[in-house]
Amino acid sequence: MFQRFYQANPEPKGELEYVNPFTLVVAVALSAQATDVGVNKATRKLFEVADTPEKMLALGEDGLIQHIKTIGLYRNKAKNVIALSKRLIEVYGGKVPETREELETLPGVGRKTANVVLNIAFGHPTIAVDTHLFRVGNRTGLAPGANPLKVELELERVVPERWKHHAHHWLILHGRYVCKARRPDCPSCLIRDICLYDDKTVA
Ligand code: SF4
């Protein structure tokens, strides 16, 4: 499976825009239940004025809301971004920490966000399980599991080391554009002969 993903797209990239680890944390925190395209539209201008925890605090919650009010749940997200900026300054000297345990102490940052940040900002071989990976892991039979953590641990176990760094991106892109939630595009899927899904669609 990963050999084929690799051949089709050797250097897969995430679609969220960011300029440093801090802005990646913010972008991922803002992306819950929102599209990457919608988040990018808002953050392009936001990151021009607030690309560090210090500048984000200076902007303040109301100033931040002006930038992100097109994004769902923006009030709660604004609170979290201000609170996590404060904690980054107070506890981590304004730097984004590089362990999952520390990242998870930041307001609004859960295991999935921590895994995304570790993978993209720091190059760790973590696999963040979002709705797309959860679906693809189960449908294909690659990493079945009743909840995201089970799927993540199964992916950790079955994905060969050499593919781990990009596994998150390959699977997310596959889920977003091919193995879609409502109607997977099985006829044009490059892993259909090794996928175990029983209800494959036909052309
Ligand atoms: S064959 Fe269909 S169900 Fe299986 S991975 Fe491809 S798109 Fe998804």
Automatic annotation (TrEMBL):
E.C. code: 4.2.99.18
Highest classification ranks of the organism: Bacteria, Pseudomonadati, Pseudomonadota, Alphaproteobacteria, Rhodobacterales
Annotated family: Belongs to the Nth/MutY family.
Any Pfam family: HHH
Residue span, HhH-GPD domain: 30-177
Top-level taxon of origin: Bacteria
Free-text cofactor note: Binds 1 [4Fe-4S] cluster.
Primary role: DNA repair enzyme that has both DNA N-glycosylase activity and AP-lyase activity. The DNA N-glycosylase activity releases various damaged pyrimidines from DNA by cleaving the N-glycosidic bond, leaving an AP (apurinic/apyrimidinic) site. The AP-lyase activity cleaves the phosphodiester bond 3' to the AP site by a beta-elimination, leaving a 3'-terminal unsaturated sugar and a product with a terminal 5'-phosphate.
Keywords: 4Fe-4S, DNA damage, DNA repair, DNA-binding, Endonuclease, Glycosidase, Hydrolase, Iron, Iron-sulfur, Lyase, Metal-binding, Nuclease
Single GO BP term: base-excision repair, AP site formation
Name of the protein described by the UniProt record: Endonuclease III
Cofactor(s) this protein requires: [4Fe-4S] cluster
Species: Agaricicola taiwanensis
Catalysis: reaction(s): 2'-deoxyribonucleotide-(2'-deoxyribose 5'-phosphate)-2'-deoxyribonucleotide-DNA = a 3'-end 2'-deoxyribonucleotide-(2,3-dehydro-2,3-deoxyribose 5'-phosphate)-DNA + a 5'-end 5'-phospho-2'-deoxyribonucleoside-DNA + H(+)
GO molecular function: 4 iron, 4 sulfur cluster binding; class I DNA-(apurinic or apyrimidinic site) endonuclease activity; DNA binding; DNA N-glycosylase activity; metal ion binding
Binding site for [4Fe-4S] cluster: C179, C186, C189, C195
InterPro entries: DNA_glycosylase, Endonuclease-III-like_CS2, HhH-GPD_domain, HhH_base_excis_C, HhH_motif, Nth
Alphabetized PROSITE patterns for the sequence: ENDONUCLEASE_III_2
